[in-house]
Amino acid sequence: MLYKYNLAVIGGKPLCGEVTISGSKNASFPILAASLLVDGTVTLQNIPKVQDIINMLTLFGSMGSKISHVDGNIVEINNADISIDNMQYDLIGSMRGSILILGALLHRFPEFQLTLPGGCNIGKRPIDFHLDGFRAMGVNITQQGDVIKFSRSAKLSSAKIELEYPSVCATENFMLAGSLAEGTTTIINAACEPEVVELANFLRSMGAKITGEGTDTINVTGVKQLHATEYKIMPDRIETGTYLAAAAITRGKITLKNVDYPSVFEIASQLIAMGVDITQQADDIVIDASAKLQAFDLVTGPHPEFPTDMQPQFCALNSVALGESKIIETVFENRLQHIPELNKMGANLERTNNEVYSSGGNILTAAEVEATDLRAAAALLLAGLAAKGETIIKNAHYLSRGYESVFSKLSNLGATLRYL
Ligand code: EPZ
Predict the structure, then answer these.
(1) 249-260 pLDDT tens trace
(2) From ligand 1's centre to the CA of 169, what distance in Å?
(3) Cα separations (Å) of 362 from 269, 317, 327, 377?
(4) Residue 72 needs a FRET pair 20 to 30 A away by CA distance; which of 44, 154, 187, 194 works?
């Protein structure tokens, strides 16, 4: 589970040097779930060593998956003999991505039960879209408290599933379930996030028949069987964006290696509009943020709109950038818990419902603050890197859920950090 720690950050220095981006956490979840669909050994490269993925692998181990770590970021996994008799249910409640095993388990087992998934407390995070879609595919679902029972009398059937909202994990769950279902499953109002496209590429490498990923309509034609594969997972676009924002807020100059530029286009465009210099060099990005930052409005939304997972970091950034700006969070109803914490550092942010107004031009000062979730912790870390003095971030361990080796990566960029 999560090893708890606080972090001291001595800020006020520009970051400089090189940082290598790890594999995508949010692409790893559905790809690991997809490995449950085949009996052979799947080899995954560039798997990030972050707590949520470690928990997902531990959950698979509790089901009898045979997992070998070829090296730090390469995993071989064989799920031929899995069983749900000894599943470690508490791990399901520790992360949102665990909901993605649903589609795959439904193909293997005609009847089982799961507990509700967990994840950051950034909203109610219901799973009604997932349950409605699986009912349409012929699954009988009953819920008692946090326990949900699933049963099917026949093979999963395809369905035409129209999503009320382009939900990322719901889209991914129906791609997984549809890949072995009878007939063609159509997902309407599908999510277009890069991680959805990555899952389609992975499933096709196992023999799945999928078209339309990256658009709002995805068709998945079920096949009799999928086969094992070897695959390298895409770089993490939110980790990339967070280091870009860290360079910007400290007015530094860093090179990010092993990035996927198209997947961070929206984030890079926002930063360029704010006045930083960003150049792409093959799989690297060089950011030079020595010039003064101009604050810029942003509204979060489903891809290709600005990613909600970067909203907390940009609240910190806009508070120091020059000029007024407004940030509107439209995806999650409770993803502004970092505002009062940033204000303890002099960010001067005013929240009204899901909107944040920033006067801009603030000089942040060190304070003791508390992280409430993964990306809020990232925002406080960025603020601490910019503020003069020693900022104490309580519950900084949230960072470990989504940022691999964040302490050493930032230290190598010149940051002064200390575990408490
Ligand atoms: C994925 O979560 C990501 N997590 C999140 O990243 C990301 O913020 C989110 O997509 C949006 O981009 C993973 O991929 C593991 P949604 P997901 O379903 O799929 C509502 C991070 O920091 N909704 O697209 O759970 C929901 O409440 C994390 O890395 C329903 O109402 O998000 C939200 O308001 C945080 N019913 C909206 O849809 C449902 O059944 C979008 O959620 C499902 C979702």
Answers:
(1) 999 999 999 999
(2) 7
(3) 23, 10, 16, 20
(4) 194
The reported pLDDT for the residue numbered 84 is: 87
Closest CA to 181 of 225, 228, 130, 215: 225
| pTM of structure | 0.97
What local confidence, expressed as pLDDT, does residue 119 receive?
A: 77
Beta strands in 97-139 (DSSP E): 111-115
> How close is the Cα of 211 to the center of ligand 1, in Å?
22
Task: Say whether 25-232 and 7-21+235-419 share the same fold.
Answer: yes
Condensed to tens digits (0 to 9), the pLDDT of residues 17-70 reads: 999 999 999 999 999 999 999 999 999 999 999 999 999 999 999 999 999 998
Tell me whether residue 315 is one of the annotated catalytic residues.
Answer: no
Residue 92 CA to its chain's centroid (Å): 16
**Nearest CA-CA partner of 282 in 261, 305, 302:** 261
Interval between CA 126 and ligand 1 midpoint (Å): 9
Q: Exposure string (b/e) for 163-199, b if CB count within 10 Å is 16 or more? A: beebbbbbbbbbbbbbbbbeeebbbebbbbbbbbbbb
Q: In the beta sheet, which residues pair with residue 16?
A: 253
Sorting pLDDT into bands at 50, 70 and 90, what band is 2? low
CATH code of the domain made up of 25-232: 3.65.10.10
How confident is the model at residue 116, as a pLDDT? 82
Is 250 exposed, middle or buried (CB count within 10 Å of its CB: 0-12, 13-18, 19+)?
buried
In the chain, where are the structural domains located? 7-21+235-419, 25-232
Residue in the structure block whose two tokens are 């008692």: 144
Burial class (CB in 10 A: 0-12, 13-18, 19+), 408: exposed
Q: Which CATH architecture has domain 7-21+235-419?
A: Alpha-beta prism (3.65)
Nearest residue (CA) to ligand 1, atom 26 = 125
For residue 303, the model assigns a pLDDT of 97
Q: Tell me the best of 167, 330, 332 to mutate to test the pocket of ligand 1, counting ligand atoms within 8 Å of each CB and taking the most.
A: 167
